[in-house]
Design goal:
Number of helices: 7
Structural class: alpha+beta
Number of domains: 2
Oligomer: single chain
Helix content: 55-70%
Strand order of the largest sheet: 1-4-5-2-3
Radius of gyration: 23 Å
Low-confidence stretches: 1-10
Distance between the termini: 20 Å
Order of helices and strands: HHHHEEEEEHHH
Mean pLDDT: 82
Number of strands: 5
Shape: elongated
Largest sheet: 5 strands, mixed
Length: 281
Amino acid sequence: MVDLLRHGWPPGTAARLYRLLKYLVYVLLSLNIWFFLQEELVSATHAATAETDFFTWVQLFSATLDTAAWVLLLLLFELETAVIPDERLVGKTKWTIHGIRLLCGLAIVSAFFGYFGEWTVFWQASLLPQPACELVDQGWTVLVDFDNFTPLDSQLCQTMGPDTVLVTGLERVIATPAALDSAYQLGLVDVINSGAWILVVILLEIEVRLQLWGGVPRRFQPLFNTLKVILYLTLAAAAVYWGFEGEFLDFWDAALWLFAFVFIELNVFEWQRELASQGKQ
């Protein structure tokens, strides 16, 4: 999404506060890469299998890959719109930025399939054929929630009833039906959230390109607005769901991204208004 921020904010204190807030959001989103990496390093130890292909690694570290790619895209937008002068966005510089943006887009799509693969892990479960206490001290763990595991010990095993299930898609992991269902739901929300963000960017990209080609036709603008409202409400609902489920990092990250995209939408609106006032629509 090139040129989304080219149409700046009024000079003075408001502009300085805006830049400060924007860079604070960038820093906080960058920190989330580290937090997701630490979380997924722990969960990866419980999902280790003999398979070590590319898709397996994407699935294990989908949130880290996804967040890193989105942050890099934001930084590229910042370079294009606020750091590098327009006259220098040509030649090798232009194509380098576009090439990195393409790689980021591929990473985001790969992360979507990683989320989907991670979700499918929780489709695979069977009733544990023996009492859980017989597995103590054999390297087994208990799925507490999505990406949250705890070692099986002599006290914990006594809380596992006859309906305990074996999560066959993970390595030596058992769970209660309630914990498995919660992980399944959280995995599904990850898939929906990732897909919604991809659709938001596609809509914004189409809107920007149409704007560059003479403006979005008026008959299509209500459709664009309706689709974006639906998608943003979906993203907000996912954030609220994570909040109620106690997934603070997911909630915090989603809230930050929604906040960041508010500014992008405002810049698109301001750009459209400026072009209309200049008689270009």
